[in-house]
Design goal:
The complex is a heterodimer of chains A (639) and B (81).
Chain A lengths: L2 H32 L2 H7 L13 H18 L5 E5 L9 E5 L13 E2 L15 H11 L5 H25 L16 H30 L1 H4 L13 H7 L9 E8 L14 H10 L5 E9 L2 E9 L13 E5 L6 E6 L8 H14 L5 H33 L5 H27 L7 H22 L2 H17 L1 H7 L5 H7 L2 H27 L5 H23 L6 H16 L15 H5 L10 H6 L22 H5 L1
Antiparallel strand pairs in A: 1-2, 1-5, 2-3, 4-8, 5-6, 6-7, 7-8
Helix pairs in contact in A: 1-4, 1-5, 1-11, 1-12, 2-4, 3-9, 5-6, 6-10, 6-11, 11-12, 12-13, 12-14, 13-14, 14-17, 16-17, 18-19
Chain B lengths: L9 H28 L4 H30 L10
Helix pairs in contact in B: 1-2
The chains are: A alpha+beta (639), B mainly alpha (81).
Chain lengths: 639, 81
């Protein structure tokens, strides 16, 4: 590759990568959490924990019967009922209903949670739950939805460029694919971390970014739709969801018995035969919901919808089975609407991209892998930001601009802390507080703003460590908070379920411990910036001045001043050890290497550099080697 | 072309932002034409045009950046990116 090309790639990767790294970490972090949004919502409503079901066929049938009984009391005149059955992701059943035009929008119905054992509504607290995190990922919650999606789409498009430029820049991509040398200096450490994580997540990153763009096509490049969809993007969106390719349901030879649930519930049939058929048809997941349609007060059809789609190339979500009911007949006809026109290649690619990004097809293990890959991608970008800092320090011999440091810290350490604050506030706010969900989301933004301010105001090395440690502590204590505030405690959920709660608590605990460890290490590394060390520096300076004064007054050889000066020189020598670190042979292959010129490795000399800073952030002349430096440790100072 | 009045450290940012914006505007302008000339049904044509656009974007951005580099140079000695 010629020089201008590499130079362009370098500049694009380092400049666009910095700004997009902030947004990219945010999007990948929130997107990873959004993969478990139903589980997060479940955790955030402790009133529902006891009503969780495992999702076996027997439990689904009982939940469906209880849901139909609940709807008979709650909405007897509705034209459509929906019972969301307990599944592996949403273990608590819920019921919804619609009439009039609303029946054409089944997703617009607001479901009510109910206890399948008692048949009564569950008074769950109002919460943004996982949907808030999902909205943050999709359209930057709080912004206008169109503007938010455009911004996310543009960022994703530019991230694609950053990714491509990063790959092009690594000449030794395959040779040093997993070359990680943690023993070397901090710059090399972060360069290797960025490179290895980038190599590992490259396929995931490309696929998820491109598939995310597919989902935002109509917002990002509406001009693409101008020639064929002049009336707006609505029809394109409908087609992108599979509408138009489904054939009308075709009757099968199979019939099922239609027996009334009980006399109390009128013509509502027992859903058991249909749900048992669905369980045989979809052995992996079974039915996820039940739709009942009415005409003139009589049930005309009952549909069982598959819990999750199993076909990657079909965006049209889930399969369904329909039982057509004719009033007065004791058997209903089973319709099979799954026959669809085979999609074209482009349509298949489009549907597969959508399904992949949304994780519609994903069983628990693939979903967990998607989640971890998303977090690793966010970590890769975080390593890139830290690498940018180190490269900048090497280049100028000075630290990064305070704004960049604060933004990096707020994104890397502040984001987990803000999410933890969101979870904490969910449990600490009064359950009956009006507009609870708004207060929770405000807490998230407030905590994030505090993180940014703290990172700006605090000493550089210490601020990040403190935020990481605080985030770790807040996350690690979430399982205890859950047990103390009405939720099912971890020891119970670990052995008796629900697995969703146990998974949440264990992940919070592990992530919290990891973050706390990282924060603690960071704080230890920056310990020279503590007030104690600043005090030591001042004492050293006083000693130095005293020595000079005494030397001026009594210049005789062998005097006390000479002895004091000798002690001082010894302390100086110990405080600024020679730290010439060997440059890595492969330096120059990464864009950040080009920023790094031959100045001393400030990243590895953090201790000495921090020691040369006064508490108010001003540099002391120690760095230039002409002034006093701080002693390295207590032993040196004591002499 | 040189810009002595601009601080040299601004120019890399300017070039990067300019390249990204120019690539996006180019795609915005090209996509409808591409969608209309593709001999495919409406949905497929629009989807294919979009997919081609997102594949083209990185290459266009790099090309624009390489083109902008000689145009946006500082009069002062500029830092190596």
């Amino acid at each position: 590759m010629n020089a201008p090309f590499r130079s362009s790639m370098r500049e694009l990767h380092s400049r666009a990568g910095l700004v997009l790294g902030w947004l990219g970490i945010f999007l990948f972090f929130m997107g990873s959490l959004a993969l478990y949004r139903y589980e997060i919502t479940f955790w955030m409503q402790p009133e529902t924990h006891h009503a969780a079901q495992r999702g076996s066929t027997r439990e689904k049938i009982e939940a469906a019967r209880a849901g139909l009984a609940y709807l008979t009391r709650r909405a007897p005149d509705a034209e459509m009922w929906r019972v969301n059955l307990p599944t592996e992701r949403s273990p608590v059943p819920s019921a919804a209903w619609a009439s009039g035009e609303a029946v054409h929008d089944p997703h617009g119905m607001a479901p009510e949670l109910f206890d399948p054992e008692t048949g009564r509504a569950l008074a769950a607290r109002e919460t943004g739950g996982g949907s808030f995190l999902y909205r943050l990922h999709v359209d930057l919650f709080g912004l206008d939805r169109g503007v938010g999606r455009k911004a996310v789409g543009m960022a994703a498009l530019a991230l694609l460029l950053v990714c491509v430029s990063g790959v092009c820049l690594r000449r030794d991509f395959f040779r040093n694919f997993l070359a990680f040398r943690p023993g070397e200096n901090r710059f090399a450490f972060w360069r290797d971390a960025h490179g290895v994580a980038g190599g590992l997540t490259l396929p995931f990153f490309l696929v998820i970014t491109a598939s995310g763009l597919v989902l935002l096509a109509q917002s990002l490049l509406p001009s693409t739709l101008f020639p064929h969809y002049r009336d707006g993007a609505r029809n394109f969106v409908r087609e992108s969801k599979g509408a138009g390719i489904m054939q009308p349901p075709s009757p099968t030879a199979r019939t099922l018995p239609v027996t009334p649930l009980s006399e109390e519930y009128g013509s509502v049939p027992d859903p058991a035969p249909l749900l048992e058929l669905a369980a045989r048809r979809w052995p992996d997941c079974g039915a996820g919901s039940l739709l009942i349609r009415f005409h003139d007060g009589n049930v005309i059809s009952m549909q069982a919808v598959q819990a999750r789609s199993s076909a990657l190339s079909r965006r049209s979500s889930a399969d369904l089975l329909e039982l057509r009911v004719i009033p007065g007949m004791d058997r209903g006809e089973v319709l099979d609407p799954r026959t669809e026109t085979p999609p074209s290649f482009i349509r298949s690619v489009w549907y597969a991209a959508s399904a992949l990004h949304l994780g519609r097809f994903a069983a628990p293990l693939p979903r967990a892998l998607l989640f971890l890959s998303g977090l690793l991608s966010a970590g890769m970008m975080a390593a890139g930001l830290l690498l940018w800092e180190k490269a900048r320090e090497r280049k100028t011999g000075d630290s990064v601009p305070k704004g960049v440091y604060a933004a990096n810290t707020a994104v890397i350490a502040g984001l987990p802390l803000s999410v933890a604050a969101y979870f904490w506030m969910n449990r600490l706010l009064d359950a009956d507080l009006p507009q609870r969900a708004t207060w929770e989301s405000l807490t998230f933004f407030f905590a994030w703003a505090c993180c940014l301010t703290h990172a700006w105001a605090r000493d550089k090395p210490a601020g990040r460590g403190e935020q990481l440690a605080a985030a770790g502590l807040a996350l690690a204590l979430l399982p205890f908070l859950n047990g103390l505030t009405g939720g099912e405690a971890l020891p119970d959920t670990l052995f008796h379920g629900p697995a969703q709660l146990a998974g949440f608590d264990i992940f919070a605990l592990l992530a919290g411990m990891g973050l706390f460890g990282a924060g603690f290490r960071s704080l230890r590394r920056s310990r020279t910036a503590s007030p104690l060390h600043a005090l030591r520096g001042r004492i050293a300076e006083m000693l130095d001045r005293t020595a000079a004064r005494v030397r001026g007054a009594m210049p005789k050889r062998g005097s006390a001043a000479a002895a004091l000066a000798a002690v001082r020189a010894k302390a100086m020598h110990a405080a600024v050890p020679a730290r010439t670190e060997k440059e890595d042979d492969t330096a120059g292959e990464h864009p950040a290497d080009s920023i790094a010129v031959s100045s001393a490795d400030s990243s590895s000399a953090t201790g000495a550099k921090s020691a040369s800073s006064s508490p108010d952030g001003k540099k002391s002349p120690a760095k230039t080697g002409t002034g006093p430096a701080l002693p390295k440790n207590k032993g040196e100072l004591s002499c | 072309m040189t810009y002595p009045s601009l601080p040299p450290e601004c120019l890399p940012w300017l070039r990067t932002a300019g390249a990204l914006a120019a690539a996006f505007i180019t795609l915005w302008a090209l996509a409808p034409g591409l969608a209309s000339v593709l001999p495919l049904p409406p949905f497929e044509a629009s989807a294919a045009a979009f997919l081609v656009s997102i594949v083209l974007f990185p290459f266009l951005a790099v090309l624009y950046h390489m083109g902008l580099t000689p145009l946006l140079r500082s009069g002062a000695k500029e830092e190596r990116p």
